[in-house]
User: What shape does this take?
Amino acid sequence: MENSLQLVLMLLLAAVLVVIVFRLLELPAMIGYLLVGLAIGPHGFGLISDTEDTRSLAEFGVVFLMFSIGLEFSLARLATMRRIAFGLGASQVVLTLAAAVACTLAAGADWRAGIVLGGAVAMSSTAIVSKMLADRLELNTLHGRQVIGVLLFQDLAVVPLLIVIPALAQPADGLAAELMFALLKAAVVLSILLYLGQRPMRAWFHLVARQKSPELFVLNVLLITLGLAYVTELAGLSLALGAFVAGMLISETEYRYQVEADIRPFRDVLLGLFFVTIGMKLDLPLAYANAHWVALALLVLIVFKALLIGGLSRWFGSDTGAATRTGLDLAQGGEFGFVLLSLAAPLDLVPQPALQTALAAMVLSMLAAPFIIERSERIVRHVSGADWLARAMELHSVSVQAMAVDQHVVVCGYGRSGQNLTRLLDQEGIAFVALDIDPKRVKEAAAAGERVVYGDAGRREVLTAAGVLRARALVITVADTALALRILAQVRELRPGLPVVARTIDDSDLDRLREAGAGAVVADIMEGSLMLASHALILLGVPLNRVLRRIRDTRAQRYSLLRGYFHGATDAAEDAAHRELKLLHSVLIAPGAAAIGRTLDELALARYRVEIKAVRRRDVRAQEPQPDAPIAAGDVLVLLGTEQDCAAAEMKLMQG
Assistant: This one.
């Protein structure tokens, strides 16, 4: 027991130290876990042996990884990106598999090894790429959308590969029948679970949630996840497949965000252990002895994927610059590649030297990925001369429009809002330069004599060409928070004191945009709410001057009384892209609740990142809750926060 405790302590100490270092270097913690496994494993210092117990525990990491992917999987999102996902993404995966099989056959090896290696190589790192694109504010660019679409299909492609790879281990004479049987069995099991499981899942979660017990809720999530994983294993399929189905079923309920928050600690810890075991599998002496093959595999992996994905992106209509960036962003191995290799390792489908070479190349490619993505702009500049010529022409056209004006307004976006704004500016005799990235809209507007030019307002050189250094103001008319933040970051560096007005769909991003430098933020939904309220009050006979004063007071308070809204089923489509949206949630203080008799100050709900917007007592609504007023049975507290934060605060109110 003492030795086991020492080994666990060594593992925890090494993992904590390495992860801290990697966080400070702004590198993915996953790579740190891989290096920990490499150092303490049987091929390193030999502190921990690669036992069956360790591998079994690490398999739960894969289970929770697949559960998280299923939880985040959205058919609506897949439908909106179907051209990228099923076009570019599917082409990339299929062609990578075909190339890998062709190479193994040419080398005289078994084609089944090509399926395994091709599937592993086809995967890119969702964790690394999505984080870096988010940090660089590139998720909503053309290449950012392509990257996310390809990653989405890669996640989906893991499911059939998890079914096919175990079936490949069967004898060659019955392989075709075994594959067909495995796919048929998977189709039947998945159809039953997905079709018949949704209603019982929702009803069961309603029952558990009504108990208002956090520990019961977490236990239920673990039960559902591991239970469905066990069901698919009994059916001869993988544990990971059942976990993926569990995530998909829960994602269709209103509890998905709470589940995700509850499951994250288990997932991250077990997933870290999984990557440690992957590092333990890497035979460093063998990889060193075959260093030339590892270097060649690394070069082929990065260059092949960059050229393949970039070429496919170009074929699907992207310009050269966007295609090159897409290829560079996805030119590395990924988490699911390790999952597929670990699944195939005990089946002896891939010779050990080839497996070790692939593992080493994938680890090195993931280490190189942040540096490649960080320098992608510079690489594009050298590789894509035509793209930079087009950009130079774009800057020239912007400069031509901006040279004739001074003390003007830079309008970022020429959609409906931008066009209405520029018409009013024209009526007031205020000069402007409008930027838009829709070539059709720019062409038609320019043909009509409008002062609009093609240009990406998120780029520093475009804003400079538009005369932001001598402008009176800048208005962001597109309701795209990521783009707005990128524009604000550039304006803050170029001209910190420039007045900026930004637009957003709802109130969830008001604070972020103001903190980023926007002097004023206009929320579409909130302004619509004010107009609805004003018309309703006038129809009810409230004097016009009083209505105007109410609206003016509300705006003066920075919309504080209208922040958030009560969520309903019809809001699902609008909220798909706002996972951290703040909502209003009413909590009835039932008899026996822990909050009865305690004041709002004593409850300290701010720790749960929620605000108390109102307290209703005997149908009398107080606009400003008194922090020293005790809570009584029957009170209704209106909370503002994310869905999971409101749920946690409600638990506190009811159970203490």
